Amino acid sequence: MDKKYVIGVDFGTESGRVLLVETGSGKEVATNVTAYRHGVLDNTLPGGVPLELDWALQHPGDYLDVLSESVPAVLEKADVSADDVIGLGIDFTASTILPLDREREPLCFMKKWKNEPHSYVKLWKHHAAQPEADEFTEVAEVRGEAFLKRYGGKISSEWMFPKILQILREVPEVFEEADLFMEACDWLTSRLTGNLHRSSNTTGYKAFWNKKEGYPSSEFFTAVDPRLEDILGTKMRGDVLSIGEKAGELTGEMAQALGLKPGTAIAVGIIDAHAGVPAAGAVRPGQMVMAMGTSTCHMLITDKDQPIAGVCGSVEDGIIPGYISFETGQVAVGDSFAWYVDQAVPDYVKKEAEEAGLNVHQLLERKAAAYQPGQTGLIALDWWNGNRSVLVDSQLSGAIIGFNLATKPEEVYRALIESTAYGTKKIIESFVKGGVAVDEIFAVGGLPERNRLLMQIYADVTNREIKVADSSQTTALGAAMYGAVAAGSEAGGYDSIFDAAQHMARVKEETYKPIPEHVKIYEELYSYYLEVHDFFGQEKKALMHGLKKLKK
Ligand SMILES: Nc1ncnc2c1ncn2[C@@H]1O[C@H](COP(=O)(O)OP(=O)(O)O)[C@@H](O)[C@H]1O
Ligand SMILES: O=C(CO)[C@H](O)[C@H](O)COP(=O)(O)O
């Protein structure tokens, strides 16, 4: 058989990346990136309407541009014929949702709604639905809803229903006009196939859905707001298909727009970070994957169905069919380094970086590497965009303790990196304490490719070996692997994600191993982190919340 190819489309926070992969070997043949023209809308809408603090929107037209620009671009770059492309899978940030009209067009495309913020895509890091999230948690607690324990006992403002409720409460006309609310991931899959389906991955992690029990009852939704009584059968309709299944086939119209063949197999969509799991080959219990980029998501495959503190989603068929997978994470990782580099680094450092031919991250990494663990005298909290793990509290903010007149920028940069490593250690401890083994750790995403110091610090702080996926486009690769499974072995793909992982996934030979002297020092520093963590995250939580309110 001729060589066959699959396409993975990774819709990240800032851009969409398309990857063309040879199915038999997993070889990455061509890639193309389309930056979102409108980026993240966190200050104003395209027309200038101002947005409040904690808002983060996107323009759905940018996603369609990714498909129509970057899919033909990879075929052209690789000189591959559409006849040899057998499948396509997409991954997306989540919960990234949008309201749609009866034709499944985004409401913000309509003139009538183009100046209404609630008609746009609410990006995963839109945190303005915190009051609504708290309300869902409270009602679920009072009613003793069993589903709550699968989400660590707290509903996050990042998820689908708090975002929908915010629309309903603030602009009920948009809620009324919406024929459907969908995850952007499922909307695009449905746009490609013409079918209305949702993914067990997106609904399981972000919309309270469970394979055995389905969604919570309509009584629960009514107790939150009577106007939500029929939401499941109306604006949330759509069968849930399991991850690893085929969502449908590419329509003629979309085939023309993408330069692919009508009938190409389209996979059920998956959350971006989660796609890194098969791409690292981590498809068995005990294997944990950290998808490290703007944020970090920690995914652990298990066969144990039990609640774990700080886990913000435990879903059967969530990532790997047949297994339960846990997800938890840290909201700002690369984002907190970006904050420092963009907002706080002095000009002399920027100049030094320019003269050395490095970007500011690279220069600070080089300088921070000269320090021994603890030598900065700084301890930071990794809550630059709230906490999504053990505390599940988006109203917490960051902190750095230990500044003095001699503190240098590279020390702050190192302290920020260390804070994110401590946050990860706390997550691992939470799994282990809950009785779920973490046997192997894999890293995927942009950060492992860019910052060796960061990876070594993670190995030292966690005292674990870290394996790194051998792909710079792991999420897109994972999405492509699901595309290969949707196509099936007869077409030149695979019959299961396990087969696909065996042939298409790889880790680098070089791993990051803990350095014993560093491990010892970090054990002590971690105990300081825990003190500060519990002080600001629990004891003085009200103070932190008060500070956040002042900023509004
Ligand atoms: N050398 C570096 N060291 C640490 N962080 C970096 C470096 N270069 C870029 N970053 C951070 O990486 C993040 C982007 O990660 P990436 O994986 O490319 O994107 P995404 O998570 O959106 O898919 C940004 O937040 C940026 O601040
Ligand atoms: O919440 C998520 C997964 O559950 C987001 O999709 C994820 O955090 C976005 O991350 P990034 O921009 O780093 O890819």
Write up this protein.
One of its GO terms (cellular component) is cytoplasm. Residues 289-487 form the Carbohydrate kinase FGGY C-terminal domain. Residues 5-276 form the Carbohydrate kinase FGGY N-terminal domain. One of its GO terms (molecular function) is D-ribulokinase activity. Belongs to the ribulokinase family. The structure is a single chain. It is globular and about 65 Å long. The model has no long low-confidence stretch (mean pLDDT 96). Helices cover 39% and strands 17% of the residues. The protein is of the alpha/beta class and 552 residues long. The longest helix has 25 residues, at 409-433. The protein has 19 helices and 21 strands. Strands 1, 2, 3, 5, 11, 12 and 13 form a seven-stranded mixed β-sheet that branches. A six-stranded mixed β-sheet has the order 16-17-15-14-20-21, with helices on both faces. A two-stranded antiparallel sheet has the order 4-7. The protein has two domains: 5-127 and 157-280 and 473-504, Nucleotidyltransferase, domain 5; 330-468 and 515-551, ATPase, nucleotide binding domain (Nucleotidyltransferase, domain 5, 2-Layer Sandwich). The structure holds adenosine-5'-diphosphate and ribulose-5-phosphate (5RP). Ribulose-5-phosphate binds next to α9.
